[in-house]
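Reading group handout, session on sequence-to-structure problems. Before we discuss, look at one worked example. The prompt was deliberately terse, the way you'd type it at a terminal:

> structure GPI transamidase component PIG-S

The input record follows.
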Amino acid sequence: MADTRTTKPGIKRLLITITTLLPFFFGIPLWLNSTQVYRAPLPFKDVDALGSWASENTLLLPCRLNVIFASKDEFLTKPELDSVASQLILHVQSLMGGNSSDHETCQNGFNIQVKYDTENVCLTSGQTLDSPTWPCGLVKYGFFNSAQLSDDILDNVLWNYANKEENESTVQDEGGLYTVVVLRKSQIESLDSFSKDDVSTGGCTNEQSSICKSKTGWSTVVGKYRHAWIIGDFNSSTVESEVVPRIGDVALTFLRGSRSASGRSKARNLPLSAEGEAILSFSLLNADPDTWIFDWDFEELKRQFFQPVVEALSGIARLTIESQVLYYTPKAVQSRWDASLNAHVVAVKQLPFFVNSNEWHLDTSSAAAGRSKLLHFAIYVPGGGEYPLHFLRKNDQLSSTDGFTSPGWGGVVVYNPTNLSTISSDSHSSFHRITPKEFESIAGVIVAQLRTLFGLPPILSDDPETGYFSLSPARTGFAEWELDLLLRRRAISDMTAAASTLMSLSRLVQKLSSMVIMDEIGEQVLRFLSFL
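And the output record:
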């Protein structure tokens, strides 16, 4: 048979092979594109730079100090005022310099401005502040007429002056701006209603005024808001040696809650969840209901004592309140009878074992499951077999509060009922509802415990021996300058935690090439970096 092939052998086979393989060659890129892991672009270099900076530096926030020398006459010249401002700036910077790692530290210490305010003269020296300060006019406003009265009245007078309508702006409500008013005691004593002999002879009877309580002749008072005042004997030649150190102490108080240059906060991290939330759980523990049963109208107690505290802290934390009443909740340690004290006592060294975790079912909040921080406040009512129950301090003296705090957990306070005659005469002799008046002392202890948990001293104490005094708001328990301090801690803690989390995410993403990164994550990273 004759060969009729018109093409060379193998070409058709080659075309069929190419035609068959061609879709695979074009399909491979499409397949790879459809199966690859989506990864939104992240600024890894910027994140690494932020992590390195955060590990080597401390975030600093701006603070401003406005010092006003108020006087009815003129005792300072402009050069003398400039010298005082220079010495004050150097003194405060020296106090800040040794503790620059403290997270409350303001940027470059304080920016300090000094004013000289008399009836006819208004001078300014020092650094320029980037926000409105108190205007001159304290003398004409009647400040000296109020300085002889109680500290609370003077504190409110200063607040009203800072917020009076004719001011260009309200300066008192701006966090980070603090004012110290300085005046000479002789100008207060010259008032007709305030006898100079009363103070010089120690016969001052106004116990509501710190100038009467001070044993040094000086009075330094830190108010409830964002101002303080200093009263003492000085003149143009002694102002730098007498007044400047006291202003420095006030600056340290505003900065870290302590006028000691070595003072450090007890709690660097606030007892809050990552979202800045916490649940305050109040439990009334009836140790022995067979003796008596105590109950409460907690909604009323919450309204009177705790809601103002929650509102004051709202800018720092989202706090919610829960309550419960438990029965048959004995403590985990044994008390002993002390005949000399006529009381059952528990030694301070036993307090770590006081809480009975087996019988005290405190973790009942469903809202706390997962993310919210739970802070317990247990009010322990002892039974008749151990009444009255007190805590015995190391010096063998009874505790004045009968309470203690456990960091990160909460606090315990013992309630020894004082109205036993009322209870026994009631028709239901074993039942009693705690009234707001009876609960007032307990609420004070709980607020002091909450302050301790947030890293502040339990109370703002006075020191007549050195002439330093502090005022604390009765309703909230937190001064405004203390709220500023907590807010700085919260801001810096959140920023540090966010930088650490971002750094960990960056390292993880770079190691796991198959990890999916959605656009939302990339946007959040870019958004956080834009805030810095």
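Points for discussion. First: Residues 277-454 form one domain. Second: Residues 480-511 form the longest helix (32 residues).
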